[in-house]
Amino acid sequence: MKQRLAPRMPLASLKTFDQPEPVSVPSDEERIADGSFSAPEAKPLPVQGYTPAAEIPITLIDKSPHQPRLIFDPEAIDALAASISESGLMSPITVKTKEDGRYELIGGERRLRAHQILGKQQIPAFVLENISVTDAAIGALADNEAKRSLCDYERGKAYKRTLAMSTEAGKSLTQGTLARRIGVSDATISRCLAFFDLPQEAIAMLDEKPNLIGAKNAASLVTLAKKGHGRIVIQALRRISQDGASEQGAVNWATSEVNRLSKTTQSIVALKIKGQHFGDVVVDGSRLIINCKNGYTAEDILSKLLELAD
Question: Rounded to whole angstroms, how far apart are CA atoms 266 and 270?
């Protein structure tokens, strides 16, 4: 039986290959990073056809519409290109065939970009056939989780899109099933999906700066937003984005603001003189703040208070 070569870290779908145990070889990303590599466990994709890794023209490869990564670090890709130039590509990219004779990228956009920087015309690739749109999206997620971790918001957006996609296709892809397929915990998916409980303006800010805030601190802001303090949440994110505040510092500020407003709200007393509602008195520590009501001015209220004082 003819044996097929496979990369050390194929996508989940490539685990169906009939092959001997490969020799442990560092991946391209590992060769330019410190520390050891550990790929997540993942379930195989249902692939009906494949070909061994082969050189395919870069001009025939279309980017994945399911790419979860929103940020590509130019310096990291330059370093990867230098590594590939010196030692070659250890892990082929993965693509799927398209009806028009072209290919759609599933895993390896950083490697593809590095080849483009080097001016190469072809790239080694594993070609998958008859793979569903949902499985292609899961494959893109699994590849990014394994190669170079995404930020929490990128993960959440990809999880949300993939789950919605499976529902539209009439398939039963639960959150737990997705977690098993890409090798993460169910809690990780829940934590990252919580970003979408933030106000829409906050989500727009994260689309521009996905690594603005991590899931842990975002969860604290989500709690405030659900209590009706969306405006303060937006201000907190602006403190991080525009003023350079730390995530924790911005969350602490937002929490203290909400606590202050809550305390103030509980101390509002209607100011009525002889049955007329002139304004609302807010107790703020040692200060009394009077907000005019029902068309009365500050002078009107002061005049009434002076009459009472006499």
Answer: 12
Q: Residue 250 burial by CB count (10 A; 0-12/13-18/19+): exposed, middle or buried?
A: buried
Task: With beta carbons less than 8 A apart as the criterion, state whether 88 and 145 touch.
Answer: no
Domain 12-193: assigned CATH number: 3.90.1530.10
**128-156 average pLDDT score:** 76
Report the length, in residues, of the chain.
Answer: 310
Nearest residue to 95 (alpha-carbon basis) of 208, 214, 14, 187: 14
Q: Take residue 256 and report the two structure tokens written for it.
A: 């203290």
**How many angstroms separate the Cα of 249 from the Cα of each of 21, 221, 237, 239, 244?**
50, 12, 11, 9, 10
Which range has the top average pLDDT, 107-116, 247-256, 258-267, 283-292? 247-256
209-236: per-residue pLDDT in tens? Answer: 998 999 999 999 999 998 888 999 999 9
Of all helices (H) and strands (E), which one includes residue 145?
helix 133-147
Ramachandran class of 217: left when φ > 0, alpha when ψ lies in -120 to 50, beta otherwise:
alpha
pLDDT greater than 70 at residue 27: no
Distance between CA atoms of residues 30 and 33, nearest Å: 5
CB within 8 Å of 207: residues ≥ 6 apart: 70
Q: Are 283 and 273 in contact (CB under 8 A)?
A: no
Cα separation, 16 vs 50, whole angstroms? 10
Give the residue extent of every domain in the chain: 12-193, 198-265, 268-309
Signed CA dihedral, 287, 288, 291, 297: sign only:
negative
Whose CA is closest to 17, among 30, 5, 25? 5
Hey, is 58 helix, strand or coil? helix
